[in-house]
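We examine the record.

___
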Amino acid sequence: MKSTALQNLQSPLLALTIMMALVGAVPSLNAATTTLSAVADVSLMENNKGELNTGGDSQIAGGVLANGERTRILLRFDLSSLPATAVIKSVTLTTTAVKQNFSAPGALFIVHRMLVAWQEGRGTGSVGESALPGEAAWQWRAAPSDVWATPGGKPGTDFVTASSSSAEIRAIGSVVFQSSAQLVADAQAWVSQPQSNFGWVLKAADEKTATTARRFASREADEGGPSLDIEYELPIPELKVSSPVLSPGKLSFGWSATTPPYQVQTRSDISAQWVNLGPPQQGAEVSVPTDGSQGYFRVIDARPQAR
């Protein structure tokens, strides 16, 4: 949407009046898109007393094993590269299933926003390695002292009870958790309050059905690691014109700087068309010649029009 003027300046003869009425709404920029890779991921596995860590492996497991033991995946993305004023419009989480049991049924997987901190760790191997101090496992969010409310994480305490998005998995390949109001809200909260960013837990929606487990590419994999596509907008701050100064043959005024360029426009009366006064400029002040006749002036954002 094209930015519109927010203040007019009128100079009838030598008496100058500032017209404060708004001419248009404050617009937003075109939606921008960024793709982020996970900065931490780890599988929590119920087997082997729940004391193993897989944070350094190229694959992470989620779902229920053939023996009924559960596995869950923790994922975290760093959103600090987004401006604090970003308004999140869409969030899509993509993972890659790289292995599954030949008899694995189609299964619904869900993600929930995490409420507590956890540590990725460096364990490798298909079943991981004993969690070192500070590493996450089924028993701990940071071994050996920081335990989950219940092993593997408790809804309502360790992660939000309601899921943020879901995806049906029937075969290996790309798994997309489509944008939802809650997924957007999660990302928005992390932009506004980075200290609350503990990522998501990815798990099977039904953890009573065996053989739903899949192995997913982790961030350490050569390709297919978890990624996050975010579409957002940046609001344009309101342009405010400062009190003008009228001197013989010249009118000077400035405005609160946002992001240049700016276009100064003029018209002879209230019903006339606005006319550009010179080319767009990078500065936040201007002096224009005047012969004392009535005139109107305004400043608009001259960046390319959003489409």
About this structure: The first helix runs from residue 181 to 192. Residues 58 and 220 are 5 Å apart (CA to CA). Residues 8-27+236-301 form a domain with the Immunoglobulin-like fold (CATH 2.60.40). The longest strand covers residues 32-45.
